[in-house]
Design brief:
The chain is of the alpha+beta class and about 140 residues long. Helices cover about 15% and strands about 35% of the residues. The protein has one domain: Immunoglobulin-like, CATH 2.60.40. It has a 4-stranded antiparallel β-sheet. It has a 3-stranded mixed β-sheet with strand order 4-1-7, with no helix packed on it.
């Protein structure tokens, strides 16, 4: 009897065990190539926003949604979390605390501000090309 005759079974058992342990989708790439898009977002007066920026495929197209933080008016996606190529709806959100609103109006808040933070939203569009460039700057009104 050959001592190595059982080796193929052991190898097959090992491969089958690994495949059963891996979660679905592990090791598989996304159906969409994500792009490393970055840029700036500012108001017409030059204020650099803090908040979030979201890229969503336009209606009738497919692709992943992508959301990133805006910090001092800058955002950056990488190839793991970025949007796919194609036409996109872009939503920019800036959150303003109730205290900031009251302070800017010269009213001193008493205790907890009622109503919580307010969100200001702008809607834009972008057409991302697969070959780049991977920079989208937005100047908002």
């Amino acid at each position: 009897m050959n001592a190595t005759a059982g080796c193929p079974r052991v190898v097959w058992f090992g491969v089958a065990t690994v495949l059963l342990i891996l979660p679905p989708g592990c090791g598989r790439g996304s159906a969409f190539e994500r792009l490393p898009v970055g840029g700036t977002v500012s108001l017409a007066g030059g204020e650099k926003l803090n908040g979030t920026i979201t890229f969503l495929p336009v209606d009738g197209t497919q692709g992943p949604a992508a959301i990133a933080s805006l910090v001092n008016g800058e955002y950056q996606f990488n190839r793991h979390n970025g949007p796919a190529a194609g036409p996109q709806r872009v939503i920019v959100n800036k959150t303003i605390s109730k205290k900031s609103i009251m302070d800017s109006r010269g009213k001193a808040p008493s205790g907890q501000a009622a109503g919580g933070p307010q969100k200001i939203e702008w809607k834009q569009s972008a057409d991302l090309k697969a070959e780049g460039p991977y920079r989208c700057d937005f100047k908002l009104d």
